[in-house]
Amino acid sequence: MTILRARGVVKSYGRTAALRGVTIDVAEGEILAVTGPSGCGKSTLLHCLAGILRPDAGEVTYGGHRLDTWSERMRSRLRRTEFGVLFQFGQLVAELTAAENVALPLLLAGTGRREARTAAEGWLDRLGVADVADARPGEMSGGQQQRCAVARALVTEPRVLFADEPTGALDSRTSEALLGELVRLAREQRTTVLLVTHDVQVAAYADREVSLRDGVVDASGLGLTAAQGRHGR
Ligand SMILES: Nc1ncnc2c1ncn2[C@@H]1O[C@H](COP(=O)(O)OP(=O)(O)OP(=O)(O)O)[C@@H](O)[C@H]1O
């Protein structure tokens, strides 16, 4: 079943055309890599699909609903309740501890303090970083910070996780370990994952790969091999 769909999505920033008519379907539960060279529009597509940006033309549907016509208030509510987001730099709140950071999305969604704290500790444990629960981001390694960011993105058990170069700031060994965990947890929960990356090693963790070039889907077949690697279903 298709959970997310972009149809002829166009988006420009002033005179820069970032997306020039992108059509893709994302199936429920799939891990889809969006790849392509720097500046081809990957992040812009992710932002349009996540309801962060509104396309200039075309349609974005989530579960059959036209997301692009919703108000910012409704889209932001959807992001809080159904979506998880993960960026290259975890964007943890510097003043909060790891456990407080992970609990934050639950508190915003109205979960009680104690329950949120317990869930946060559980997720830190699943990501192998329970020992830094009371540390602040400045006291953690880059890998630990990104594991906390993954815990924070998954704590609400989102239906879709949007990950933009999630391991871009990590060395290759740390990155492999983290991606392995991320994919395992996503599969366990049947979370759909949209993984934006320019790195073929990262794309190899996906079930399928869609390549962009100059704001359109690259139909040349280039880059279609990486996702057929050993990490697929
Ligand atoms: N906020 C912005 N204002 C102006 N131009 C932008 C903005 N964001 C992106 N662009 C431009 O839109 C185009 C697509 O950018 P986008 O970030 O979507 O590409 P990308 O494939 O994710 O790149 P990268 O891999 O380098 O992150 C680029 O030409 C970029 O310079």
Write the layout of secondary structure elements.
Elements: E1 2-13, E2 16-27, E3 31-35, H1 42-49, E4 57-62, E5 65-66, H2 72-81, E6 83-86, H3 98-108, H4 113-126, H5 142-154, E7 160-164, H6 172-189, E8 192-196, H7 200-203, E9 208-213, E10 216-217
Parallel strand pairs: 3-8, 3-9, 6-7, 7-8
Antiparallel strand pairs: 1-2, 1-4, 4-5, 9-10
The site of adenosine-5'-triphosphate has 12 residues, from strand 2 and helix 1.
Task: Provide keyphrases for this structure.
single chain, alpha/beta, Rossmann fold, four-stranded antiparallel sheet, 7 helices, 10 strands, disordered C terminus, binds adenosine-5'-triphosphate, AAA+_ATPase, transport, transmembrane transporter activity, ATP-binding
Descriptive report:
- The protein has helices at residues 42-49, 72-81, 98-108, 113-126, 142-154, 172-189, 200-203, and strands spanning 2-13, 16-27, 31-35, 57-62, 65-66, 83-86, 160-164, 192-196, 208-213, 216-217.
- With 233 residues, the chain is α/β, with parallel strands linked by helices.
- Helix 5 (142-154) runs parallel beside helix 6.
- Helix content is 33%, strand content 25%.
- Mean pLDDT is 90; it is low at 223-233.
- The chain has a domain at 1-82 and 191-223: 3-Layer(aba) Sandwich (Rossmann fold), CATH 3.40.50.300.
- Helix 6 (172-189) links the parallel strand 7 (160-164) and strand 8 (192-196).
- The chain has a six-stranded mixed β-sheet, sandwiched between helices. A four-stranded antiparallel β-sheet has the order 2-1-4-5, covered by helices on one side.
- The protein binds adenosine-5'-triphosphate.
- GO terms for molecular function: ATP binding; ATP hydrolysis activity; transmembrane transporter activity.
- This is Putative ABC transport system ATP-binding protein.
- Keywords: ATP-binding, Nucleotide-binding, Transport.
